[in-house]
Amino acid sequence: MGDTVPKFIKNAALRSAVLASTIALASTGSWAARSFTPQSGTWVVSSEIDGKPGRGLAIDVQGNTFFMQVFAYEKNGDATFYTATGQMDGNSVTAPLIRYKNGRSLGGAMQDAVEDKSVGQVTIHFTNGLKGMIQFPGEQASAIERFLVVSNEPSVTNPRVQLGERTMRLFAMNEQDEPSLTVRAKLRRTEAGLTQLIWLSPPTVTIGEPGPEFECQVSGEKNRIHCLPVVKKSLSKPRSGLPIIESLDLQFAGYDINGVLHTGGEKPQKLSITGFDEGALLKEPSYREGITTYNPERQHNYISASFGENSTCITGSCVATLAANTLMPLNGTWVVEDELTGKPGRGIALDVQGNTVIIQLFNYRADGQPTFHMGSGTYQSKGMGSRASVATISLRQYRGGRSFGGTPQSARLESEVGSAVIEFNSPPADKDTEFNFWWTQGILKLPGEAPVKIRRLQTDTPGQFSEQMFGDWYVAHTDKVEHFNQAQGDGATTTDGKILCLPNDPSSRFNMSCGEPNGVMWNWLQALYMPTMGRAKPFLRLRDRFGNATGLGAFE
User: Fold this and answer.
1) Which N-terminal stretch is annotated as signal sequence (predicted)?
2) DSSP letters of 158-192?
3) Is residue 500 part of a domain?
4) Tens digit of pLDDT for each residue in 426-456?
């Protein structure tokens, strides 16, 4: 993206992180559950967004465990970073800001860091998954917000100007913050340039009866759409099982969607919407080479991916599908596998939004003092049939920004240190390959260093299978939200006992099975791959094991 990408990166001053390989999870049974989860990724101080470099945050909340890396500056202008780890108490957390030193420098020999000192306490209160307040040591409380990339470039990865069809799962929440309706929907743009949203028929709608259709307008300078229902003359009454819909507003923030649904009739309602983006598909014109017709397509992959089909030939004519995939890893804190020693070291903050990747490397200078490098670049498929997505990112260092308690001031570019290359791929499936491999594993090449494996840091990983499954899940087979809260043997079952999930043998391609038991038989049974950090196509987590909602919360 050339010079345009660094411009918005400067708005965010990114976090730094020297982190240990494990973060202890404290007991949280008596704490209030949240109605949202702060979205992992780059956050900014709202009043410091001025198009220039500055301070910023990389926030990562999993369950009740809070981890933050803060990108800031020393009083002498040197770039530095701090980390904060604590347990959320409702929507708030207070934790010490820790400085580290003597870790590995860029291109330097491998070595662990050591804790230097605490510079004071930081307090954060979140108001929803995208906004909050922060108080740094020696400063008044300031508003913070999730940094969201907004683009007007038509793309398969851009719901604001969608090419192809985007599929999503939406939930309308009642006053008790429980799902009262769930639908699958598709977003697309017509040849005339109109944005359409179509609800795919839920089970309560008569088979063959189409779901509601909407015409939508992009709202302002955000990734939002405002939709009004299309009233067809042939419809004299509302579709069976569905409310009378007056309007629908949706906001897209990566994988997460929130919004509000206004219904009419005798009892009009304003229902909150929470949802998850499954991805998008753009079919391109077919072409022929020899006896083979190729059908190329571009995909934006959150939940699942297909990588094309080999030629199928009948009577001298063949057909094949080619795919170019933009594979979306899980944003947040990443670590170099070989540097996981149980001691502080370097850290990586990764934030992929559409065709843009933002990366922050939290490391050390040659003299042992903490510093950070950051950059952004275009993230895209390596090409048709490659099974990989890649970005080349110019890493930059800044100085002269605001220190804790200091006067507001922007930073300036100090140096460019070379390019980082990051790649995520999906190797051909076999029993030794993790399902949806690209969500949590990748390859990073830093300037002056060999390529290394990186992995998403997971801080809420209970040892028991049943605990991993506790919470509220949308189950695709039943098309309902099910509450898992009971251990049964090695497995977990729902409150009513109708669905039982069990761990499979580790050597199996699928590591869990779920179904409805009926004595020694099953009414239905599926072999699945355990959801990764709450995400999988057959299962989508709506509440974690502590009762916290996983979505963005209230739409503003």
Assistant:
1) 1-32
2) -GGGB-SEEEEEEEEE-TTS-EEEEEEEEEEE-TT
3) yes
4) 887 654 555 678 899 999 999 999 999 999 9
